[in-house]
UniProtKB/TrEMBL annotation:
Name listed for the protein in its UniProt record: Cryptochrome/photolyase FAD-binding domain-containing protein
Region (Disordered): 213-235
Occurrences of domain Photolyase/cryptochrome alpha/beta (ranges): 5-138
Gene source species: Ceraceosorus guamensis
Lineage, opening ranks: Eukaryota, Fungi, Dikarya, Basidiomycota, Ustilaginomycotina
Residue(s) at site: Electron transfer via tryptophanyl radical: 396, 470, 493
Length: 603
């Protein structure tokens, strides 16, 4: 085709330039033209609850990437388009004379797998060659799955044994020093001098594209359970946020600009949503690499990292763990670079107390692989209880309900009023248990909480006290976590609810005793539940146990100025353990049939 490769590089989970094998393979072709594309996919937007913190991080990361591309070539930037990639890509192949489509493989989530298969087929049909490298994980998840006989990995040992066949993860590769321009064929001989002249030509080439928003819009029912717009669980998610991405202005935006939208242009108001402004976790490759460098510099911290000893009681700005998860989620930092930098830092440290998997940094990164292989092995049903071959079936209150075919999700019934009230209290941070409420507020405000705070929330909501399905908890995290991941989020919720991966259901996190071990003075509570800030240390984790005169002195009467506990911690714990015993004895797995047939017995 005119003698030169014309590459479309489709950015998705890899908002970076360093250590990107697919990008490197694309650039090795020495292409005549190079189109860095980002596609707002309505399926993604509607199928997931995306809270404002994640949107902000994503937009910041896209802007940073666009600037990096521009600094490598003044005629380049991220070309942001809106629409279903399965419709849009074939059109762009033709209009831009594409010869190669390059992208980083995204191994998790059934929709994504199907979308990428379709993109491959469309590429083939248009004579476009696909270059897909892997880079989102340490290992190629598909290959690890094969090495594990296509079975989901349910323990770290199983994962380690499967990856042992592949040796160490690949070493990271450097970022490119230059990239070619996104030139239409007619412009190759004499390219425009300025990007301001180039973009209108590219925009003109999109004229007549179908208006995806109108075509796709009616398929999405915002009231249905999975989409969840109306059931948004916090101040941050309003339906309009999702709507405006593919709303009536979408086709207009394609015509007018390729630029990264702002939160405001998407109808989101960070201040009104009461999220932390400015962000404690700024998006982008440079920010991620800066954070990585900072943690790696402390060789003792890296070499002796022991996850269970890190504190869940610190605010996001002082995180006791690396806080690199948002950067890994959007691919701003390469996981292989993280791995190898940590290996080097550990080597340099000559002191005592070096740690190893599972508790060290490498162990953490391997957990991420374990969940990804598990997700890839289970497929579509991984994110729910029903028909999920690895999730033990437990008769939670507020389960998700499926239709009689066991496939399509039907709107959930209201559930029993008491459980709905518990769930509402949880997501609105008014359970009366200060550590739980503070962690929920921290999550909603900053988009991140420590792993053990996630443990505390997940245990409390499911088999610890509330007996609510892990799916409901996972869906709350879906919306608020910046680092939300289709494999790690459901996987960890299954772990914490003792539905899969972990089974010691009699080990329940104390709502006061557990966090108290890490921070007796309750600083997280004082920050996020300021009405409790004048309580003495002795009562900060359980203010309802303080005598009335102590409450009055702290200017906060429990039940009036701060909620009384919504349940009896000890009684509910015993109740839940008894129910878990029965559920384990029944040994149900992945099948809600009994419930649908009305056979599940109240215990
Ligand atoms: P560090 O302790 O510094 O670990 C380094 C990296 O290792 C992390 O960035 C992360 O990529 C990986 N990692 C560490 N622990 C885990 C783990 N248990 N599972 C998977 N990866 C891990 N992590 C996500 O990335 N996305 C999620 O959606 C997610 N949902 C969770 C839900 C629940 C209920 C629980 C209990 C945990 C969840 N985690 C999730 C795992 C873990 O809490 C976060 O990865 C971690 O807290 C991120 O902070 P960090 O980067 O400082 O972690």
């Amino acid at each position: 085709k005119d003698g030169g490769a014309r590459v479309m590089y489709w950015f998705r989970t890899d908002l970076r330039l360093h250590d990107s094998p697919a990008l490197q393979a694309a650039l090795d072709l020495k292409p005549q033209a190079f189109f860095p594309l980002w596609c707002w996919d309505p399926n993604y937007i509607y199928k997931h609850r995306v809270g404002i913190n994640r949107f902000r991080f994503l937009l910041e990361s896209m802007s940073a990437l666009s600037s990096s591309l521009h600094s490598l070539n003044p005629l380049s930037q991220l070309l942001v388009v809106r629409g279903d990639p399965c419709d849009l890509l074939p059109e762009l192949f033709k209009r831009w004379g594409i010869t190669h489509l390059a992208f980083e493989r995204d191994p998790n989530d059934e929709y994504v797998r199907q979308r990428d298969d379709q993109a491959r087929k469309d590429a083939k049909a248009n004579g476009v060659e696909v270059l897909d490298g892997y880079g989102h994980h340490l290992y190629d998840i598909r290959e690890v799955l094969k090495a594990h006989n296509n079975e989901p990995t349910l323990t770290l040992g199983a994962l380690q044994s499967a990856v042992s066949k592949f040796g160490d993860p690949a070493k990271p590769i450097d970022a490119p020093k230059s990239i070619p321009s996104p030139l239409l064929k007619d412009d190759v001989a004499s390219p425009p001098q300025d990007i301001k002249d180039l973009l209108p030509k590219l925009l003109k080439s999109l004229e007549g594209l179908p208006e995806y928003s109108k075509k796709k819009g009616p398929e999405y029912d915002l009231n249905s359970h999975e989409l969840g717009g109306q059931r948004s669980t916090g101040e941050s998610g309003k339906v309009t946020c999702y709507d405006s991405l593919v709303g009536p202005d979408a086709s207009e935006s394609i015509k007018s600009t390729f630029s990264v939208p702002t939160l405001e242009s998407l109808g989101m108001d960070a201040k009104a949503a009461r999220v932390s402004v400015p962000s404690l976790i700024p998006g982008g490759e440079a920010e991620g690499l800066k954070r990585l460098e900072r943690v790696i510099k402390d060789t003792k911290y890296i070499a002796t990292f022991s996850k269970p000893k890190t504190s869940p009681c610190q605010d996001t700005s002082e995180a006791s763990t690396t806080l690199l998860s948002p950067y890994l989620k959007f691919g701003c930092v390469s996981v292989r670079k993280f791995w190898w930098d940590a290996v080097e830092a550990s080597k340099q440290y000559k002191g005592a107390g070096k740690t190893s998997p599972p508790e060290n940094i490498q162990g953490q990164l391997l957990f991420r692989e374990m969940y990804s292989v598990a997700e890839a092995g289970v497929g579509e049903t991984y994110k729910r209880v029903h028909a999920n071959p690895i999730s033990r079936y437990i008769d939670w209150y507020l389960p998700t309900v499926y239709d009689s075919k066991g496939k399509e999700i039907i709107p959930r019934p209201a559930g029993d009023a008491a459980s709905e009230a518990r769930y509402a209290a949880f997501v609105e941070a008014r359970t009366g248990f200060p550590f739980i409420d503070a962690a929920v507020k921290q999550l909603k405000t900053t988009g991140w909480i420590h792993h053990l705070a996630r443990h505390s929330l997940a245990s409390f909501l499911t088999r610890g006290q509330c007996w609510i399905s892990w799916e409901r908890g996972a869906e709350f995290f879906d919306e608020h976590l910046i680092d939300w991941d289709p494999a790690s989020n459901p996987g960890n919720w299954m772990w914490l609810s003792c539905s899969a991966f972990f089974h010691q259901y009699y080990r329940v996190y104390g709502l006061a005793t557990f966090p108290q071990k890490y921070d007796p003075s309750g600083s997280l509570i004082r920050k996020y539940c300021p009405e409790l800030k004048d309580f003495p240390d002795k009562h900060i984790y359980a203010p309802h146990t303080a005598p009335l005169e102590v409450q009055r002195k702290a200017k906060c009467e429990i039940g009036k100025d701060y909620p009384a506990p919504i349940l009896d911690e000890k009684k509910e714990k015993e109740h839940c353990i008894a129910r878990m015993k029965v559920a384990y004895a029944k040994g149900w797995r992945g099948d809600a049939k009994e419930v649908l047939e009305g056979k599940a017995q109240e215990i």
